[in-house]
Amino acid sequence: MKIHRSLLAAVFALQLAACATTSAPTASSTLQGDAAHPAQTQGWVDTKLYFGLGPADHPEQGISETQWRGFLDKEVTSRFPDGLTVIDVYGQWQGKQETAPERLHSKLLVIYYLDTNDNRGKIEAIRAAWKQRTGDQSVLRVTQPADVSF
User: Fold this and answer.
1) Which CATH architecture has domain 44-145?
2) Which segment of the chain is annotated as a signal peptide (predicted)?
């Protein structure tokens, strides 16, 4: 019994030693050589756009998921094909003529991009396309500088 425990202890010690000396390959925390997804950025921004899809309590009265994806493909992905994020959110909006806020099922679109006149124009075109398509008064835009690394 004593020999058996000693043997187990020796095997366990060897396994621990092997783990300590085995090194895993290291990977870079950033992409290399991809201009659309740079390892380091300068002059990039983070823009968030808020789209109201319809009444939170009656989603069947608003924009469907299929209609949203069609808009996303045609108006957004075509302008920013390198990547974006869409988050389902709930929001409230009170229009000029309303006495109480509307509760809305909404989408939050997040895009990181190089801050250029061309890209700012693409953002405004997306907002205009949504307002034209839905008749909404506004698409909230929040833009701020971003330190991005892929």
Assistant:
1) 2-Layer Sandwich (3.30)
2) 1-20
